[in-house]
Amino acid sequence: MQIIFPHWYDDLYEFESEAKGCLLNFTIIVDHQEFYINFYDSARFGQECEVEIKTNGYFQGSKAVILEKVNKANIQYYFKKIIML
What we know:
This protein has 85 residues and is of the alpha+beta class. It has three helices and four strands, in the order βαββαβα.
């Protein structure tokens, strides 16, 4: 399996994503197929849900994946698991 991260996704960006708890509108290529996903850790996802519910009365999210930590290793692990399904 080939997983290609964007060229701009470097160590600093990974550090910032993990600290923020999210990586939004992220494009990644897995086996020549593009995926557009919003990655969150559980704390950040909970915050996003709360704000949406208070603002709109509901939460509707698309393409959200919740990881223990938003980092390269966990993103790779996620794709390896879903590709095996």
